[in-house]
Design brief:
The chain folds into two domains: about 5-125, Rossmann fold (3-Layer(aba) Sandwich), CATH 3.40.50.2300; about 145-205, Arc Repressor Mutant, subunit A. It contains nine helices and five strands; from the N terminus they run E-H-E-H-E-H-E-H-E-H-H-H-H-H. The protein has helices at about 15-25, 40-45, 65-75, 90-100, 110-145, 145-155, 160-170, 175-185, 190-205, and strands at about 5-10, 30-35, 50-55, 80-85, 105. A five-stranded parallel beta sheet has the order 2-1-3-4-5, with helices on both faces. Helix 1 (about 15-25) links the parallel strand 1 (about 5-10) and strand 2. The longest helix has about 35 residues, at about 110-145. The radius of gyration is 24 Å and the shape is elongated. InterPro entries: CheY-like_superfamily, Sig_transdc_resp-reg_C-effctor, Sig_transdc_resp-reg_receiver, Tscrpt_reg_LuxR_C, WH-like_DNA-bd_sf. Pfam families: GerE (PF00196), Response_reg (PF00072). Keywords: DNA-binding, Phosphoprotein, Transcription, Transcription regulation. It comes from Vogesella amnigena.
């Protein structure tokens, strides 16, 4: 993705600090939007549009960065968050990371550290989108299977041979082979290992046992 398609939101009440981050990130061809308060950010943020990451000062007047993060979590925000923190707020930032924030930077930090954190956050967001796309694709393919093809799939991913599947379902081996071939085609699986990996990953993402 072109960097100009990525939006980085900076939420910090310190104008000079915002300006320094804005200059640094724009000089690396990122599109940056600055907000002087958590409340102002919430009024304009639309997480469903585009992709990017959020850089939040953990301590601000009014709604703090941590409170903003909690509100974004409640709204189902999937954009990665990087906290900016002073020395005294490091324990708070560590707790935020444990609850899903991507990273935190302790002031003062150098430009390379910020750019590395942003790159890491964007990579994590891209990976999450890819995983979600894979889940949706697998779900769509599973929906195309007939009930018999689903029965065959369940037994195939358990490692059962065609003869055992035929005995389980009370059908001929040739019928199992026909259902198995159609099921593999519909699932877009190149091999049994590919099928197993796809279905297990899908179920893990959906919170179901493999």
């Amino acid at each position: 993705m072109n960097r100009t398609d990525i939006r980085i939101h900076i939420v910090d009440d310190d104008e000079a600090f915002r300006d320094s981050l804005l200059w640094l990130l724009e000089s690396h061809e990122y599109r940056v939007l600055c907000h002087d308060s958590a409340e102002g950010f919430l009024a304009s943020f639309q997480p469903g549009q585009g992709s990017g990451c959020l850089i939040l000062d953990i301590r601000m007047p009014g709604m703090s960065g941590l409170q903003l993060y909690e509100e974004l979590q409640a709204r189902g925000n999937a954009w990665p968050v990087i906290f900016i923190t002073g020395h005294g707020d490091v324990p708070m930032a560590v707790q935020a990371v444990k609850r899903g924030a991507h990273d935190f930077l302790e002031k003062p930090f150098n430009q390379e550290a910020l750019l590395a954190a942003v790159e890491g956050a964007l990579a994590a967001a891209a990976s999450a989108r890819q995983n979600e796309s894979g889940v949706q694709q697998c779900e769509a393919r599973l929906a195309t299977l007939t009930s018999r093809e689903r029965e065959v799939l369940e037994r195939v991913i358990e490692g059962k041979m065609n003869k055992i599947i035929a005995d389980d379902l009370g059908i001929s081996i040739k019928t199992v082979e026909a259902h198995r071939g159609k099921m593999m085609d519909k699932m877009g699986a190149r091999s049994i290992a590919d099928l197993v990996q796809t279905v297990v990953a899908y179920r893990q993402q959906k919170g179901r046992p493999g």
